[in-house]
Specification:
The protein has 101 residues and is α/β, with parallel strands linked by helices. It is built from 2 helices and 5 strands, in the order E-E-H-E-H-E-E. The strands form 2 sheets. A 3-stranded parallel sheet has the order 3-4-5, covered by helices on one side. Strands 1-2 form a two-stranded parallel ribbon.
Length: 101
């Protein structure tokens, strides 16, 4: 990650949002390219999903110390997460990810 602000001009078609571990997905009405993968019990398979990602998003309103952020970081995936609970103890803003309100 760069410490400098960058502007990207990408269309939404260049993104794929992958939601892994959703047990009861709600129908997507956003029009975004979202794919849902059911619960993954294999740690090796889950690590492959993380390693295939360019970015991990964690948008929680409340959270203690989410393991998913540690899993993503351990697979080398930068994270963008809300600055709530213990997330700021996991993500160093601008170094291994970014914290947002």
């Amino acid at each position: 990650l760069s410490r400098y602000k960058m502007t990207f001009f990408l269309s939404i078609q260049e993104f794929l949002f992958l939601c892994v571990g959703e047990r009861n997905p709600t129908p997507d009405t956003s029009g975004l390219p979202i794919r849902v993968v059911p619960w993954v019990s294999s740690r090796r398979e889950l690590a492959l999903y993380y390693q295939a990602a360019d970015l991990f998003l964690h948008a929680a309103n409340m959270e203690n110390f989410p393991t998913t952020i540690l899993e993503a970081l351990s697979c080398g995936v930068p994270c963008i997460a809300t600055n709530v609970g213990g997330i700021s103890e996991q993500i160093v803003d601008g170094m291994n990810g970014f914290l947002v309100k």
